TrEMBL record:
This is Glutathione S-transferase. Pfam families: GST_N. Transmembrane segments: none annotated. It comes from Ambrosia artemisiifolia (Common ragweed). Its EC number is 2.5.1.18. It catalyses: RX + glutathione = an S-substituted glutathione + a halide anion + H(+). It is found in: Cytoplasm, Cytosol. Belongs to the GST superfamily. GO terms for molecular function: glutathione transferase activity. Is involved in the conjugation of reduced glutathione to a wide number of exogenous and endogenous hydrophobic electrophiles. GO terms for biological process: glutathione metabolic process.
Amino acid sequence: MTQKCEMKLLGSTGSVFVTRVKFVLKLKSIDYEYIEEDLCNKSELLLKSNPTFQQVPVLFHATEQPMIESLAIIEYLDEIQPNVHPLLPSNPSERVQCRILAYTFDTLFYRWIKEFVVTQDKERREELKKLIIRGSVMLEEAFVKLSKGKPFFGGDDIGYLDIVVGAFLGWLKLCERIFGLYVIEEERTPRLTQWGKSMWSREVTRSIIPSHEIHMEFRNMLKKLACASST
Ligand SMILES: N[C@@H](CCC(=O)N[C@@H](CS)C(=O)NCC(=O)O)C(=O)O
């Protein structure tokens, strides 16, 4: 008899936000059913469960309301499974620093990178490149401060910020391969370079980060969505 999963994740495979949630589910050994969403032809399930933003990920857990927003979802998972691979620091002031950096990362970095990989405008791409490079130096500084000499943002092991930022590792590779932009590189961001190596050395990272081909397909889909919303 097949067992019914209590948890369901609605996602799109190339999405960094969905990757974050999958990362946490794997680290915490939580079983779930995955439902692939077609973002170019959104399902009733997505429109009903996230009517405001109509975006993935959406997490369904038993009788709870559908949950949206990757950062809120990963905190929820950390709270319901606190004893398996805890993600956020126990100290409130360290916790708030993590949340601030995650918010800043999503508000600035994500938008720059997304626009960088999608835009056709070469001048704008050059501007974005400068912003991303400047952002990478800020991220390096934050890493030095938060990691306290350890290999991960979370210290000796993968924590909340490692997942928030690490979910982008596939996109960073895409920037390298298509545009020759090294967001993380030895000279400018030595500690983040080591961090990247530590992240890739973990089986969980290699199994969760989608392949280059999937990211390329996702980029094409984002381009289509961008065209559709500008017409
Ligand atoms: N802030 C949201 C962002 C989610 C998001 O941007 N999802 C994208 C996929 S990467 C999406 O569903 N896009 C479809 C759309 O905006 O129409 C989160 O952290 O979950």
